Amino acid sequence: MNELKIKIVSTRVGYSNSILLVNGSNSVIIDTGVKGNINRFKLLLKQYRLNPSDIKLIILTHTHYDHTGNLKALADLTGAKVLVHKNEFENLKNGFTAIPVGQGKFSSIISKVGRTIYPRFASPKPFIADFVNEDEFDLNEFQIDGKVISTPGHTNGSQSVLLNRTLISGDTFVNMRNGDIFPPFANEPKILLETWQNIFNLGIENIYPGHGKMFKIEKAVAEYEKWKKKSENGSNYWQ
């Protein structure tokens, strides 16, 4: 793929990232950030000289509220089709996604309290997606040499966008201010480690995470070794 033709723009929307793939009249948005920020997208499109109708596809890496907050407003503005993984199609349709499991002492407390007091906290607004990815979704229809791949672990229906040696990962990876790459919340941490291993085998060089700045794959490899050792030792992930 000639990545020079497609500009990857990461922008913070609330406290999560949205990615704009600038590709003329076949541009794509990946994740829609925290609700109430539709004007952020209007300014972004203007900055890159795109009309709303130039956005042909909105890809959701998963259905947590901080990645789906502006979905309806953005779909209404652009007329774009929406893609979600098959394992989260019903979550989006019904407007309910369970709060993920915490992978640290603090995040575990937040998760347990949230599931008891406000179980819908992580949920999106109900929305029926146009496209469902079962495993891989080819983006050639949108004049992009890339694909959407399943990357479970953070949630069962997490997915990422693969563009040559670049991965746009949603919360399969994060890049927190404290240096953590492993997400603080993950429903299936062992499966997430398997997903990481599969990603390493793809020859990825750059990762655009769901939270934080882009980073090189080597940073994730070091983090993987640490968490893999904990898993092999039978330790709880947060100990």
Structure, explained:
- The chain is built from seven helices and twelve strands.
- With 239 residues, it is α/β, with parallel strands linked by helices.
- The chain has a single domain (7-231), classed as Ribonuclease Z/Hydroxyacylglutathione hydrolase-like (Metallo-beta-lactamase, Chain A), CATH 3.60.15.10.
- The strands form two sheets. It has a six-stranded mixed sheet with strand order 1-2-3-4-5-6, covered by helices on one side. Strands 7-8-9-10-11-12 form a six-stranded mixed sheet.
- Helix 6 (189-200) packs across helix 7.
- The longest helix has 16 residues, at 217-232.
- The chain is globular and about 50 Å long.
Can you summarize this structure?
This protein has 239 residues and is α/β, with parallel strands linked by helices. The chain has 7 helices and 12 strands.
Key traits:
alpha/beta, Metallo-beta-lactamase, Chain A
Q: What's the CATH topology label?
A: Metallo-beta-lactamase, Chain A
How many individual helices? 7
Percent of residues in beta strands? 15-25%
The best one-word shape is globular
Strand-and-helix sequence, N→C? Answer: EEEHEHHEHHEEEEEHEEH
The count of DSSP E runs of length 2 or more, i.e. the number of strands, is: 12
Mean pLDDT: 91
CATH superfamily: Ribonuclease Z/Hydroxyacylglutathione hydrolase-like
Distance between the termini: 42 Å
Structural class: alpha/beta
Give the CATH architecture: 4-Layer Sandwich
Name the poorly predicted regions: none
User: Biggest β-sheet, characterized?
Assistant: 6 strands, mixed
| CATH class call | Alpha Beta
Our Rg estimate from Cα atoms comes to: 17 Å
- With strands numbered from the N-terminus, the spatial order across the biggest sheet is 1-2-3-4-5-6
